[in-house]
Predict the structure.
Amino acid sequence: MEKTEEKLAESPDHEASSLMNAPQVSSKKQRIDRWRNLISFFICGLVNNFGYVVMLSAAKDLLKGKAPTAVVLLCDILPTLLIKITAPFFMHRIPYWIRIIFCVLCQLASFQLVAWCNSVGLRLIGVVLASIAAGLGEITFLAITSYYHRNTISAWSSGTGGAGLAGSLSYLGLTSWLRLTKQASLMIIGWLPLLIALCFFVLMTKPWRARPDPEAPSESLLKSQDGSSQYSTHHYPSPPDSTMFQHAAINDPSALEAGAEAGAGAGAEVGVGASTQGDGNGDTAPAAIPKRSLTFKQRVIHIKSLLKYMIPLFVVYLAEYLINQAVVSTIWFKNSPFPERDHYVYYQFIYQFGVFLSRSSVNILPIKRIWIPSLLQIVNLIALIIQSQHNYMGYVWIVFVVILWEGLLGGATYVNAFFLLSKEVEPGLREYSLGVTSVADSLGITLAGVLGVFIEPALKQAHKK
């Protein structure tokens, strides 16, 4: 009997069956791992930007009239902008797990400070911590996506896009509908940063343990098939999405100058080289492409060609954040069905809802002339400033419609600007172009915060007269 089993085990048919079953088991594991990674990146994207949105929605509650709401905006954007500018010079030296722990601790501390401290200064420190966590988390997770299947970028982007809606809705629901206190509301949602740690340390696969760090100096000497040497660099994809914080800042600055020739065959959505290489976990990461160096003068000249994307982005974000953090905080109606305090929270949610809708519309309703929605946003700003002083709209529902329109215009300008850039800019310059262009919206938000510090008090003073 034993001999018969040994013969069966050694038979060609048994060996063939074993060989056929092995790929099926491997393929099933790869699919499971891929879904684990996609779900993890979605959750991490959602939670990473969640605190940023909650702080903006809670701005009036945090300040209690002691400072303009634009101060919260400045505390929410300046640390992130600083990280984006400085990250290329030191970020690659810090291991991923240390960055993740630091981000989680910053977010946990931010919710606690904002919830329990009576001092406005300490609350603003909490807002700064949330901003640091969001900026560092964005750069870190975008870097990590280079080890995974390209769809992890989409999963991360979807998560960050949903953060605006989830953050504003959760704060509105807890404080305005359930009538919970600010402290109770922030404590309920304050544990969410732990989900980032759970996803990173438990759910996600760890392909970087077996592959070189893409954030190491990107210039590596590779041998071509004919034996000659050439410098090459990784070229990672960047999505035309909302929450895209300067993906180019992930790598060494030299990585921004990937050669255009090898970028042919760009992806349909993000316009990057289509060739990939496996990571052994069912995922694929972008392959290296040849490098074409740019001089400082060439970089400056190329920035001029990006102004057609950057100016509309700057204008639309300047106008909409002036609206959100300086103008609508002065607009409320005595005949509305909810108290004065709730107006601002509703405005923030409706704006985020409009942004969420429009950022999903690029494949349905693409816009080539992106300067049109940016100019319409200025019209919105002027209309709401006049409303703040003269109350010509009469009903809060009309203001809701205008703010929904504001969100639609802002989201459409953003997603179409990056979509057009990914199609029109040559492949070897896309990563550099995306990095430079993404600074435009941050600069617009920052200027809106600075101007808002003066505009909101002026509107309130004029309203009293």
